[in-house]
Amino acid sequence: MSRLQRPVEARDWARGPASAPVTLLEYGDFECPACGRAFHELKRLERGLHDRIRFVFRHFPLSQMHPHATLAAEAAEAAGAQGKFWEMHDTLFVNQGALALDALLSYARQLRLDVQRVSLDLDQHLFLPKVRRDFLDGVRSGVNGTPTLFINGTRWDGPYTAEALLRGMRGDASMIVEPMTGLPWGGDA
Amino acid sequence: MVTIAPPPPASGILSFGLSPGTRAPELDAPAAPDGHRARLADYLGSPLVLIFYPGDFTPVCTGELGLFNELLPDLQALGATVLGISCDSLWTHCAYAGELKLRIDLLSDFHPKGALSQRYQVYRDDIGTSERALFVVDGDGAIFWSEVSPIELNPGADGVLDALERLSGRELSRGSVVRARAEDEL
Question: What fold characterizes domain B46-173?
Answer without folding.
Answer: Glutaredoxin (3.40.30)
